[in-house]
Amino acid sequence: MTVHLPQIAILGAGSMGGAILAGLLSPEVEAEGIVVTNRTELKAAALRRDGVVSLATESDPDANATALRGARLVIVAVKPAMVPGLLGDIRDRLEPDAIVVSVAAGVTIATMEGLVGNVVFRAMPNTPSIVRLGVTGVAAGSRASEADAALVRTLFETVGAVIEVPESKIDALSTISGSGPAYVFYLIEQLTATARHLGFDEAQSRLMVEQTFRGASELLAVSDADPGELRRRVTSPNGTTQRAIGELEKAELTALFDRATAAALARAAEMARGE
Fold first, then answer.
1. Would you say domain 180-270 falls under CATH 1.10.3730.10?
2. 84 CB contacts (<8 Å, ≥6 apart)?
3. Taking CA atoms, which of 34, 64, 117, 232 is between 20 and 30 Å from 259?
4. Which CATH class is domain 3-167?
């Protein structure tokens, strides 16, 4: 089914803005227009494809104003510290019915609503959005209507699943799904190192580990069983896997992930205070 979207501006098409753009360029999505901006011409040139208008602020000081002209959805994807200044610069250039969606960590709805008069949302996608398997948390501002929320939800459904949460939960969500891909990649790195220690070469180690993670995720996706049940099916009583799981249990991984996410949540609070 084809998804129809109004004109979109993406201000800052770095890793996250670029991930969203990749999803929007899928054949199933039809947008009335997409204009993206970056600071450098080098980055802007790399995105000029498939009908995307890509502008560089270093060569065109009015690039953001041009991108905003006619845009109904404005995705702010610059670094968090740059968001307040950018919103102050563009507030008089926004279309009256434009919806401003920030994907910057730590920048609150109150901060955004204090800088622009438009409807605002906070969103927290993750990088698997590039392959349309992302998870995006969305929190609506005080001026948003149900129709506004539906449009923003449709936007992010083009790159994966959407979870609508109150703003009080958006930073906590970020510590799970936002940072989560890094946790997975870190586990893959470490298990690959273990494979190397067992005498396998780099190619063999990567194949074993990466295909195992991918296969396990796909199996979970198509199964009616939860992860615990699938783990038990692999773990024969008194077998090799049970012995390995026993060692992992000694590491108290739940407590470890509790500490890791608490640290990420504390950093989000610091960023919200401008630290």
1. yes
2. 107, 111, 115
3. 232
4. alpha beta
